[in-house]
Amino acid sequence: MLPTQTRLASSRSPSNRSRALLLALPLATGAALIVHMVSDRSLVAALALTGGLALFAAGLAVRRLPPAALADAKRRARLGVIAGAAGLAAYDVSRVLLVAGTGLETKPFKALPLFGRGLLGSEASDTAAWVAGAGYHVANGIGFAVRTASRSASPAGAPASPGACCWRR
Questions:
Q1: Whether 49 contacts 35, CB under 8 Å
Q2: pLDDT tens digits for 8-29?
Q3: Rounded Cα gap, residues 123 and 33, in angstroms
């Protein structure tokens, strides 16, 4: 078998398919937002759909992964949460600094209550909409970081670290 054929065959292994299924979970919030915008369905319904499908896929994956691969997936997810929290904080601070430093008349967090109202309904109070929207923003940002950390590898087979998102397989 040629090296390319070996790589292709190994990428179709049950373990690799299960790892791919696990990647659906951290992307559920982003997928829900796309479904919401494209289909004009409520954000809650879109999140229920994408979240439900992602939980189902993750449940299948967890049952199929060998113990070592599952432990690696959990470790990478924890690293993704840490890196995601740091990245999200830096992203939000940079938006505030950009607006403050340039005098732009934009509101960097204007979308947050819109996300919240998409989740809670248009009758939600301003405070509830802000809290729900901020929670959605955090879940989405950290979810993307978990996905990136879960799909990344360090150079030369070294263990994954929060900086692993810079290296691709």
A1: yes
A2: 444 455 567 776 677 778 888 8
A3: 20
